[in-house]
């Protein structure tokens, strides 16, 4: 009657998987978000024309 969660070390496996996935997910999130933040700041900056 076990559902597979009572396997010895199951929590350790899940923690290890999250530990490995976190840098990848963080990198993908920053790869998408940082350029958009930069574009937003550039678009909000006041443009000063010379001449």
SSE map:
Elements: H1 10-44
Organism: Thalassospira lucentensis
Protein name: ABC transporter permease
Transmembrane segments: 20-42
Beta fraction of the residues? under 5%
SSE order, one letter for each helix or strand: H
How far apart are the first and last residues' alpha carbons, in Å?
80 Å
> For the residues shown, what is the average pLDDT?
81
Q: What low-confidence regions span 5 or more consecutive residues with pLDDT below 50?
A: none
Protein name: ABC transporter permease
Transmembrane segments: 20-42
Keywords: Membrane, Transmembrane, Transmembrane helix
Structure description:
This is ABC transporter permease. The chain crosses the membrane at residues 20-42. The chain is an all-alpha fold and 51 residues long. The protein has a domain at 11-45. The chain contains one helix and no strands. The radius of gyration is 22 Å and the shape is rod-shaped. The relative contact order is 0.07.
Summarize the structure.
With 51 residues, the protein is mainly α. The chain is built from one helix and no strands.
Descriptive tags:
mainly alpha, rod-shaped, 51 residues, 69% helix
